[in-house]
From TrEMBL:
Keyword Hydrolase: yes
Residue ranges constituting the Glycosyl hydrolase family 67 catalytic domain according to the UniProt record: 141-459
Superkingdom of origin organism: Bacteria
Pfam families: Glyco_hydro_67C (PF07477), Glyco_hydro_67M (PF07488), Glyco_hydro_67N (PF03648)
Entry's family note: Belongs to the glycosyl hydrolase 67 family.
Domain Alpha glucuronidase N-terminal: 22-136
Organism, as annotated: Sphingomonas bisphenolicum
Reaction equation(s) it catalyzes: Hydrolysis of (1->2)-alpha-D-(4-O-methyl)glucuronosyl links in the main chain of hardwood xylans
Keyword terms: Carbohydrate metabolism, Glycosidase, Hydrolase, Polysaccharide degradation, Xylan degradation
UniProt-recorded name of the protein: Xylan alpha-1,2-glucuronidase
Length: 707
């Protein structure tokens, strides 16, 4: 269908859709494209048999039937136009080499077999075939060509996981898509269809593991009834190539079995964890391992016993080692009694531990040093621990980027971080190379995304939030993909491959994250959102008990200027980066303006590159963000004829909310910062709609996602 402009008449999109089908809609295509699809998949020939292979062939049948109206037969014999799925084990004479594809990769080739043109999906395992089937279906749905295919694809990163911050009572910390999809109460008996649909969606983008419960963990997850519940989910996910993992609470041995201590060097504690691991592996033989948040935000940990994070991680690692399990130990730490810059604390704690972790431990590091802000420079630990595998933690759920209603596509944020150069081993030492292990030769590699999934029919709280889940999976599989390519794929499958739809949708998406940066935290500002729920602006908040809980700690606005001095004259956080970056970030003149106030306290009348003062530039950034949202509203309105009514209306309404809230962010921020800067607004800029006290008085005790 590429190049064939759809018109509303040819493709009446009036049929309402609720978003449940995600990017796997397999919508009916026009007759000429249906002919192309049928010619390239008129039968499916799969050698071997397994639950995974059955899922792959059924998915192909479902997809082709949806798009063409005809279900291709499963056939034992090769015919012209067949789609073949084979591994070297099932087909020793496989005509395509599978070396280098690993256990999860695949090749898709158009070949001649017995004089017949066929499409062969080849892999070393049935999971690889499943991934290949989804790739072929992506091409089919996106209107791509299906002849002369010669594709090879294998992930460089081993662990591609979702982290659910789901609580056992069904709530989701920082969840904006309804309650948890895990029905813990009725598990293990009732396994509703959501579970296999979840696995299917994840397999389609290459995600291969899921941490089921919140990192703010309850010990109860490790009791026998809850292990049985996790095992039931693992059984559903297994044929999709997805393993389960659990977050654990450090004091579980004390809480569950009355041990006197949780000291990692106490043999009784180690023995408890070993027995617990054995119990879990008995129920879930392919259990992935543990995720740990320790000595962070009130969670207990080894430091409570004067032990290090490495002591704790290694003790747990020993418990799962014999089973092939791993431990993901989070580096998200900062302490109330540490007066140092919060942005420096994780590095200070973990850098000295480099080389001290067991070989089945991987340290999980958030993308930035504070906390999933609209923009943060990459975390200085990336590139700073060469002897330790580090995995990335992104947040797919948008705690700080508009939660469920704002259209802020995260692909560009993920891409910006992955492509950032750490200079750890000279130019080109990107964060992507740190986490895929290629920079230091690590075999244990991983990337995690905090899930944005809940029981809402559309899974993610909005249609456009689905793109963030999709983008995470696609980048985890292949960090070299561009956010724009991914947005295009997603839009083609989610709406239509018609360029009249795809181009405007991709344009909206691509600038949307920068727009949120502009109307929330321009020029390197961070953490200026309101307390607790993090919904909406609160730059004035200053009275909370811990300094680093207050926005004033982060922006440091005063009569002289604004921004956090992280240079030598300030906290010297810049020294945690490799020399070229320490130099770049250390100088106000050359620091990229997007990070200016992250690293520098800058006078209000400082001249930006545009020639305007910092104060005027700040105001203009807020306005640019608001204007971008208004433009998205106009663009979306122009797409009304091409999008089904239900999804059109949801996005239209959410953009209205976003515009209102972008204006609120602009006005509240300007009202507050103007009270500090005492500068007039630049010519042409409207005064905030209300006075500062009005903004301060807004309270949201029931905002979602806040524990
Ligand atoms: C799971 C931030 C969030 C918390 C979250 C924490 C973490 O502080 O606001 O809700 O807790 O990060 O990543 O552990």
């Amino acid at each position: 269908m590429t190049g064939t402009a759809l018109t509303p008449v040819l493709a009446p999109m009036a049929q309402a859709e609720d978003g449940y089908d995600l990017w796997l809609r397999y919508a009916r295509v026009e007759p000429s494209r249906a002919g192309v699809l049928a010619a390239h998949a008129n039968a499916i020939v799969a050698s071997g048999s397994s639950p995974t292979l059955a899922i792959a062939t059924q998915e192909l049948q479902r997809g082709i039937a949806g798009m063409t109206g005809t279900t291709p037969a499963l056939s034992a014999t090769v015919q012209q136009g067949a789609l073949l799925l084979a591994t070297p084990a099932s087909t020793p004479s496989l005509p395509v080499k599978t070396d280098g594809l690993g256990e999860e990769g695949y090749a898709i080739r158009t070949i001649m077999m017995d004089g017949k043109a066929v499409t062969l999906i080849a892999a070393n395992s049935d999971i690889g075939l499943l991934h290949g089937a989804y790739h072929w279906l992506r091409l089919a749905q996106s209107g791509e060509k299906l002849d002369n295919l010669d594709i090879r694809s294998a992930p460089k990163i081993g662990l591609r996981l979702l982290n659910h911050w789901d609580n056992l009572n069904g709530t989701v910390e920082r969840g904006y898509a309804g309650q948890s999809i895990w029905d813990w109460w009725r598990l293990p008996d009732w396994k509703g269809p959501r579970y296999s649909d979840y696995a299917r969606a994840n397999a389609s983008i290459g995600i291969n593991g899921t941490v089921l419960n919140n990192v703010n963990a309850k010990a109860d997850s490790l009791t026998a009834p809850y292990i049985a519940k996790a095992a039931a989910l693992a059984d559903v996910f297994r044929p999709y190539g997805i393993k389960v993992y659990l977050s654990v609470k450090w004091t579980a041995p004390m809480e569950l079995d009355g041990l006197k201590t949780a000291d990692p060097l106490d043999p009784a504690v180690a023995a408890w964890w070993k027995a617990k691991a054995d119990e879990i592996y008995k129920a879930i033989p392919d259990f992935g391992g543990f995720l740990v948040k320790a000595n962070s935000e009130g969670q207990p940990g080894p430091q409570d016993y004067n032990r290090t994070h490495a002591d704790g991680a290694n003790m747990l690692a020993a418990a799962v080692k014999a089973h092939g399990g791993i431990v993901m130990w989070r580096a998200f730490v900062y302490a109330h009694d540490n007066p140092d810059d919060r942005a420096k604390q994780a590095y200070s704690d973990f850098k000295p531990l480099d080389g001290k972790f067991a070989d089945n431990v991987i340290v999980q590091v958030k993308n930035g040093a504070i906390d999933f802000q609209p923009r943060e420079p990459f975390h200085p630990l990336f590139g700073a621990m060469p002897r330790t595998p580090l995995m990335m933690e992104f947040q797919i759920t948008k705690e700080y980027l508009g939660q469920s209603t704002h259209l802020t596509y995260l692909g560009p944020l993920f891409e910006e971080v992955l492509d950032a150069d750490t200079y750890a081993k000279g130019k080109g030492s990107t964060v992507a190379k740190v986490i895929d292990g290629s920079l230091e030769g690590h075999k244990l590699t991983g990337i995690a995304g905090v899930a944005n999934i809940g029981v809402d029919r559309d899974w993610s709280g909005s249609i456009f939030n689905q793109a963030d889940w999709y983008a995470f999976g696609r980048l985890a599989w292949d960090t070299s993909l561009s956010a724009e390519t991914i947005a295009k794929e997603w839009a083609e499958m989610t709406f239509s491959p018609d360029p009249k739809v795809v181009q405007p949708v991709v344009r909206m998406m691509m600038g949307s994250r920068e727009a949120a940066v502009d109307y929330m935290t321009p020029l390197g500002l961070a953490h200026v959102m309101d307390t607790g729920h993090h919904y909406g602006p609160g730059p004035w908040v200053s009275e909370l008990a811990r300094p680093e809980w207050n926005p004033v700690y982060y922006h440091k606005a005063d009569a002289t200027g604004i921004g956090f001095d992280r240079t030598k004259t300030g906290s010297n956080a810049v020294s945690q980066y490799a020399a070229p970056l320490a130099k770049l970030f250390g100088s106000v003149k050359i620091t990229p303006e997007r990070d200016l106030l992250w690293f520098h306290h800058v006078p209000w009348d400082y001249r930006l590159k545009s020639g305007e003062t910092l104060w005027n530039g700040l105001v203009h950034h807020y306005e640019a963000g608001v204007n971008y949202v208004a433009d998205m509203q106009t663009t979306w309105a122009s797409l009304k004829p091409y999008v089904d009514a239900e999804r059109y209306a949801q996005t239209e309404t959410f953009l209205t909310i976003q515009h209102r809230e972008a204006l609120w962010w602009r006005d509240a921020s300007i009202a507050y910062f103007q009270s500090v800067s005492q500068r007039p607004l630049p010519a042409g800029s409207a005064a905030p709609a209300h006075d500062l006290n009005w903004y301060k008085a807004q309270k949201f005790p029931y905002a979602p996602g806040h524990n």
